[in-house]
Amino acid sequence: MSWRRGPAVALVLAAIAGAAGCGSGAHNSHPLASAVAARAVEDPRGASLAAPGVHHYEYVLLDQAIYVYDIDHGHGLVQQIALPGVRGIRGVVASPRTHALYVSHGADGGPGTSGSLLAYDLSTGTVKWDRSYPRGIDSMAINPSGTRIYLPDGELSRDGLWSLIAARSGRVVGSIHAGIGPHNTIVGLSGKRVYLGGRSSRYLDVASTATNRVIRRIGPLESGVRPFTISGRETLAYTTATGFLGFQVSSIKSGRVLHTVTFGRRFRFNPANFAPSAPSHGISLSPDERQLWVIDAPNNYVHVFDVNGLPRRLPRRIADIKLADPLTGQQSSCSYDCARDGWLQHSRSGCFVYVGDSGDVYSTKSLRRVAFLPMLRNTRIMLEIDWRSGLPVATTSRSGLGYVERAHLARPPKCR
């Protein structure tokens, strides 16, 4: 199941990089496309065994395959993992504790539908299990210990159900009922609370992982909850909404909306001329919680805000970045939900931001594009996994979360 070779694979990887450029909109001759350098390259396990320190990789998932890019060496493509038959991918999480990567795939809710969850062993390069469920699936989250997965049954579902999955076996061990259209999910860094975004609900629900019951509702928000993120201390939630160009900031403690932010008169949104339902389908908080990046798909921009003074101070827009590779058209080699809605994710270092459905990678220091990942042009399912001594040791989620757990630890990243 896993594609893996030793150090003499540069020519093979060059062929993979070329193949990755095939298809509509893949930009195989893109000037910033990740190319394999003359140096020999290895997959994450081999590279982390061969050299000391932590090695950082971005994992990009498409139908039937995972593409792995080396963050430390110009985002070169270093591995392709085959996942035959795995189509309609809706979510991905990883657990360094168990060395496992989990992929949700299949239908995202509705009568008579079913979805699946696959567990892939990163250390051995094999599929551990692939379970099917009598309901849909969507973008899930995993607790810090790697024992429980919170799996929504899909944005098209009307039952508001998140299933609790035993990560070791894939067995359903419980459930949480929250907002209609279970869609996006985040577990806080503490592991004590899980945040449940229902696409058809105007409230972001917060549930206790000890009782599996909703303990707080954040809102009412502009409309249905779409991509969102939270701060490391779980004090602030940043949400986007269906049909709304912009974002909202809310207090998790009180459940009240603090700020509703748009992008100004220059950036307008006409639903009649923009097919996707969420014009700001991508939001990412920098790990140091100083910046917030938000997608503006109708205008093909990403807007950057200074949020360092929240909640006392309003978010301040500091940059408007025009996407070189616009969020238009359809993903190639895609079986379901193929519009280029967009997605944003910071690297764990905070030095890079990845733009799903565009393929662009931006430096947070220069605010300039520094790489183009061809396969990221055709997906919004991605996350970072870091390796050391042959094993995964850290990961991000799909959502760009804040990682400041104590105020005095909020330090800006040291980026080149």
Characterise this structure.
With 416 residues, this protein is mostly beta strands. The protein has a domain of 133 residues: Methylamine Dehydrogenase, Chain H. Helices cover 4% and strands 40% of the residues. The chain has 2 helices and 29 strands. The strands form 7 sheets. A 5-stranded antiparallel β-sheet has the order 3-2-1-28-29. The protein has a 4-stranded antiparallel β-sheet with strand order 4-5-6-7, with no helix packed on it. The chain has a 4-stranded antiparallel β-sheet with strand order 8-9-10-11, with no helix packed on it.
Task: Round the mean pLDDT to the nearest integer and report it.
Answer: 91
Query: What is the architecture of the domain at 86-218 at the second tier of CATH?
Result: 7 Propeller
The largest pleated sheet is described as:
5 strands, antiparallel
Name given to the CATH homologous superfamily of the domain at 86-218: YVTN repeat-like/Quinoprotein amine dehydrogenase
Helix segment count?
A: 2
Number of strands: 29
Low-pLDDT residue intervals, each spanning 5 or more residues: 1-28, 34-39
Report the structural category.
mainly beta
Instruction: Give the spatial strand order of the biggest sheet.
Output: 3-2-1-28-29
How many whole angstroms does the radius of gyration measure? 20 Å
Task: Categorize the overall geometry.
Answer: globular
Oligomer: single chain
The share of residues in helices is under 10%
Strand-residue fraction?
Answer: 35-45%
CATH class call of the domain at 86-218: Mainly Beta
Remind me, CATH topology of the domain at 86-218? Methylamine Dehydrogenase, Chain H
Termini gap: 36 Å
